[in-house]
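Notes, Module 5: Reading structure tokens.

Key idea: the token line is not a picture. It is a compressed description, and you learn to read it the same way you learned to read a sequence, by spotting repeated patterns. We will look at two proteins. The first is printed below with its tokens.
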Amino acid sequence: GTLRLHVYNTYEGAAADGGSTAVTLHVVGRALGCEGRCPLSSVVERVEVGFEHAGAGGSVPRSATWAPPNEEGGSGACDRIEVRREVAGGGRECVAKIRIFLRREHKYFVAAPALAALLGIAEDTHARFMQALWSYCRARGLVCADDPGAVSLDAQLRALLSVAGAPTSHPELCKGRAAFATVCAYAADLLSEAPPVSIEHRLATGKQQQRGAKASNGGVGGASPESCYDIEVELAAPSVRDADSDAVAQACDDELRALCGRIEGAAARAAFFRAFEASPVDFINATVLSQGRDLQVAAASDARARSASSTDGFAQPWAARAADVYLKRR
């Protein structure tokens, strides 16, 4: 996905006598296409801001680090970062250097120029670089038919291995072919960990006084022009679970069960009518016999129930024996 950042700063107290100016740096971020679901704190691991010429007499820290709030602690998500500093020398511009460390599931790497030119990928994960290298070999028919784990070395691969530091006397290279694992090992040496996203913002501290307004302390307040940046980030899969999802799921389950019951009832009625249509006489005879058997079973059950509930049932000879076994069960 794409993270869109808006960077600007506001200032106030820029007096003509060259006093200090209160500067607030604003970094506002929104993930395009999923507003409200992927806040800035969900895609950024931390942000480091460094200031040049910040602080009056060096008493104010020149750098600041921001980390996303702990959602488990109840702080919630946020879309905005604000850093306030006192900049010495009113009217003099300073530079804020912003380093953004993105939250990624896998570590990203930057390819050396030789590897990037071969694969057409400048920054990606280690696994995707190796996959692209294998695709390169397959597309050019370099995979050996007698050994799928080996590849023939064309001029581009030889040049790549040379840049990676492979010796010309390597036994595999002398044969014009090498194990793909060997090629991957040398290609990995051409990968370096991707640096954080760096942004330089020139702080407005009062030079553009024509854009400012009169501040309460007699100085000038205003804002710098806003800069916009688009950054490719990994966005979490959208979650459809909310507070009412359980109730909605239960309602859907109940509706499905009701529909299944109606379908089963319709199927039973259809089978009933098809059997009657095929042979009415046999159908009636089978129904009468079935009802007769049901009446016999019901009558026998009623008789057993009446016998068990009567006083005579408890006066049988086995009753004393059963009571003796029950009392001696321990």
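Here is the second protein, with the sequence above and the tokens below, as before.
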Amino acid sequence: MARAARALAVALLAALAGAAAAPRDSSPAPADLELAEVAEVPAWRELWYGSLEALHREPTINNTQEDVLAQLGAVAFLHCPVRNLGERGVSWVRRRDWHIISSGMLMYTNDERFQVLHSEGSDDWVLQIKYVQKRDNGTYECQVSTGGGTLSRLVHLHIAVPEAFILGADEHHVDAGSTISLVCIIEKSPVPPQYVFWYHNARMINYDAARGVTVQTEPGPKTQSTLAIRAAGPQHSGNYTCCAANTEPAHIFVYVSEGMSRDGVVVVKAVRLLATNGRFYKVHTINRRQRWKPASTRLLAEVAEVPAWRELWYGSLEALHREPTINNTQEDVLAQLGAVAFLHCPVRNLGERGVSWVRRRDWHIISSGMLMYTNDERFQVLHSEGSDDWVLQIKYVQKRDNGTYECQVSTGGGTLSRLVHLHIAVPEAFILGADEHHVDAGSTISLVCIIEKSPVPPQYVFWYHNARMINYDAARGVTVQTEPGPKTQSTLAIRAAGPQHSGNYTCCAANTEPAHIFVYVSEG
């Protein structure tokens, strides 16, 4: 029975390919022998004509508009259910610029975040967008061309961008010996972050309990994270940052004064001033970006009353005339696909000059100072006040980010530069065996998936039957065992397999291309 059924399937495919239209006097071909086997199946005529009838049915599409909410940096799935598709194809189009993203399984974009998912036998054609960004927000349309026109369905993608802010002003003053207490609020996050990280200048301090640091985080619609530092000293002065996954960081500057008088506090403020063309300028934070504006007359008057102001003033002028130096040692940075890459550029005595980042493969200027010259929101320059390091951060790195980046500083004697080579590691998954796996009903399906070339071994590997995740289907005889390592191995076992277990099986892990295999379960 199984052999004849297989022959019937071959015959149907041959008919679609035109094999059935061969001349009567042609010599027998292998396909003719398969057709002869079909005649032995009693119900073959019914199956044959039923298949031909299905070919002539017009496709139908669920044209109900859908709203999809995805958090910045997460994965979005846009669904397009089509019945009776036949030999036609499903296309995805981005409406804001009418860009054709895909046709069938063929992609028409070089953005590797986009992928079409479709399981054999399924009516659903899913557009997957990894590491969604703000610019992905908008309407997408799936289309099917028919004899009567074009069928379409609209999917509206909404990107939720979590926001972080630290309660209080941009500056926080405490006396030495007291407790620094900062509260960070993260809101507008569909999935509340489980972890909020605090940094002092460029150093993460969440786990500095031995230094008097405690962090308490309460996840919720408005996640609240409280940083407390006991017995604060001058070494605790500086820039503090709170951030969570896929959230823009928030900053505050903390001053710790050692029993200073009013004059002492003014001196601390004066240190943050720069002498430019004979005037004081102060750094202010507006909308989370640094802006320069003249210091107020009142502040200048305060500084003039401090006996040490002249020394500070002339010291600042002297610093302005020093030539900058750059660590020009070339650096190699390895980042896993989908992770965050940090490219460092240490520059001393920068003064009023700016640091620029350039992508060498196309000589595209990415940034100058804190100003960005790219609309790719994954790129951001990180720089803490008082630090020599200018860091180019690239979120959700993709294959095309691989290559050399250069940071530059222009001086009177020419341009100083440093090269950073970014290498993107792309984990690979494959299922042992051929593309098809045949088992008898009642036996055990056993599949082994290997994930290699992953700098950070995945802790979880997910298995799907068609479009359904089955890792936790223990009640249905499913078990999954995963052993993380240089070559992570995940084994799927399904006891007492039946015809319902036939179909496409997929294994995948975070930031890894999935692997597929088709399983056939035959009854006898």
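Summary for the second protein:
- Residues 169 and 252 are 8 Å apart (CA to CA).
- The chain has a mean pLDDT of 79.
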